[in-house]
């Protein structure tokens, strides 16, 4: 299909969600996808994207990105250590060299930046309170972008995303393994978004995102984590996970899993209306109705 003259979009961090986004946007835009692996070129081309070889951990490899696209969708996570997101900093340095080209940046962050609120509701105006190093790196990325964008005349939309799920991203293996959940009295609220819904929201932000705006890209549900596991278990005809007190559970689950289980917040999504894209799956329960009970 001829794409000359089309608006150019660069996707940075083109994993599962990035592929879904590229497939949608390639119908009406010239889509580029940054990858550090030549082995992914065929996969990216299959969804209509043009692969660009580069590595966010190697700034000298990013020269092709300068002046490449009018819109940048930044999905790449930070590196795994430290409190600063060096990858975002490297990206912004190269984008600044073509800042007359870039007019919009969409950054997919995490609701983990809010930290633990003991089950209280949080909104986009709630001050960030990151507790894990992972969340602190995300706050650093957000802060870098929020300083950089207005200084370069760029409209920035930050989408804060909770737990992403899909048919192949449900905790079925965890449930089959019999990994316990927290007792109801100590359980934490968890927040979710279905993967296709998230991809649609990112695409909507290309057209409707307000400048310098934060939006919670979640379904607004108020389900506790153990109840979420129970819903999935019931949908697949599995035994529900056993429940344990926090003191016991912390000793047997991974530090990564425990970091999610110890933070409780109910994330509101009233600003989603700005993106003019209703969710297809306003709750996990609605999605589970659509899949087979026999995986």
Automatic annotation (TrEMBL):
Cellular component terms (Gene Ontology): cytoplasm
Pfam families with a match to the protein in the record: Epimerase
One Gene Ontology molecular-function label: aldehyde dehydrogenase (NAD+) activity
Listed CDD domains: SDR_a4
Segments crossing the lipid bilayer: none
Domain NAD-dependent epimerase/dehydratase residues, every copy: 9-216
Protein name: Nucleoside-diphosphate-sugar epimerase
